[in-house]
């Protein structure tokens, strides 16, 4: 818990300088380059298949970072970055400017709304907003915000309205270490303390958080 709090404090205290330069992706250029992305993420960035993430309205800095790390995952043979059998291959031919343009385009779109089942609202809200001190689980809202919008500055993603199935898969990957591109292992540390039920509830709760 202390490690997570310290990492967040240091991060927010130092990122302002590194983000001083405006994000220089080109929305129109990104739209022209997005045709291949539409196969999985949809033409409007709202993936029609729930195992793929919605990327419409996601922070440009976050999309750019993930594309960089997918490419690094491939070039390093999975030793660095984020390795994915589909996305790492898709990111390989992209130039740095391609990534910025795509990130700018998809971030300019609107993410479609989702819904939260009534039976998970109470437990999901408690875990998301307050965490569980006895188990050392911090509130998700501490990094992702009360409405799940995240923050571009710290590259914490928007997670509200995301497909529950995708959220579930990523939390499980953080928990078992197959995804490890999070800052200082923060998400891995948290996910290791989550039960299967916690993950199911949070995933469904986030689907309609607004």
From TrEMBL:
Q: Which molecular function term from Gene Ontology is one that the record holds?
A: iron ion binding
What the entry lists under PROSITE patterns is as follows: CYTC (PS51007)
Which residues does the annotation say bind heme c 1? Answer: 37, 40-41, 87
Cytochrome c domain residues: 25-110, 119-210
Q: What is its main location?
A: periplasm
Where found? Answer: Periplasm
Task: Return any one Pfam family short name.
Answer: Cytochrom_C
Q: Which residues bind heme c 2?
A: 140, 143-144, 187
Name a single GO cellular component: periplasmic space
Gene3D superfamilies, A to Z: Cytochrome c-like domain
Q: How is it modified after translation?
A: Binds 2 heme c groups covalently per subunit.
Q: Which residues form the signal peptide?
A: 1-22
| Top-level taxon of the source organism | Bacteria
Protein name per Swiss-Prot or TrEMBL: C-type cytochrome
């Amino acid at each position: 818990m202390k490690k997570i709090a310290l990492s967040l404090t240091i991060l927010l205290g130092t990122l302002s300088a590194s983000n001083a330069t405006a994000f220089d992706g080109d929305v129109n250029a990104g739209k022209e380059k997005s045709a291949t992305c539409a196969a999985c993420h949809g033409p409007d960035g709202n993936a029609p298949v729930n195992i793929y993430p919605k990327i419409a309205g996601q922070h440009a800095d976050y999309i750019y970072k993930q594309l960089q790390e997918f490419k690094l995952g491939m070039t390093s043979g999975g030793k660095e970055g984020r390795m994915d059998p589909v996305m790492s291959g898709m990111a390989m031919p992209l130039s740095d400017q391609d990534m910025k343009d795509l990130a700018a385009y998809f971030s300019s779109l609107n993410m479609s709304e989702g819904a939260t089942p009534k039976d998970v609202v109470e437990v999901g809200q408690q875990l998301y907003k307050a965490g569980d001190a006895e188990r050392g689980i911090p509130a998700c809202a501490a990094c992702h915000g009360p409405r799940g919008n995240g923050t571009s500055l710290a590259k914490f993603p928007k997670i509200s309205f995301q497909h529950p199935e995708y959220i579930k898969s990523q939390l499980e990957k953080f928990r078992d270490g197959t995804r490890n591109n999070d800052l200082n292992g923060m998400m891995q540390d948290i996910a290791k303390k989550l039960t299967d039920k916690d993950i199911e509830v949070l995933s469904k709760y986030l689907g309609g958080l607004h």
